[in-house]
User: Fold this.
Amino acid sequence: MLLHRARSAAGRRSSRLRHRRAARDRGQAVPLLLAVVALAAVLMAAAAHLGGRLVDRQRAQTAADAAALAAVTGGHAAAAAVAAANGGALVALRAVLDDVIVTVQVAGEVATARATRAP
Assistant:
């Protein structure tokens, strides 16, 4: 009987210790969840910024291609008008023999394109 009481007292102490440890650990998931949500928000913002830059880069390249083709047939004025119609600004235009090299800037992104008059 004495052995039974000693075991049950030890079991109660062990149970209390487990309960105290569990009480200290309670609520740890909330800060972890907030950190994960904050990290996800930062990653989404970075992805959106990168996506916007890629779109601007593609728009600049499209404007440069169109401006180069316009410059072949219509000269500097046509290239500037086409670049503006595509949301960009003509930065440079160079004619080398039958080639025209155009640089266009759209929303901070710069692109260069070449067109030729030769068949």
Summary: The longest helix spans residues 29-85.
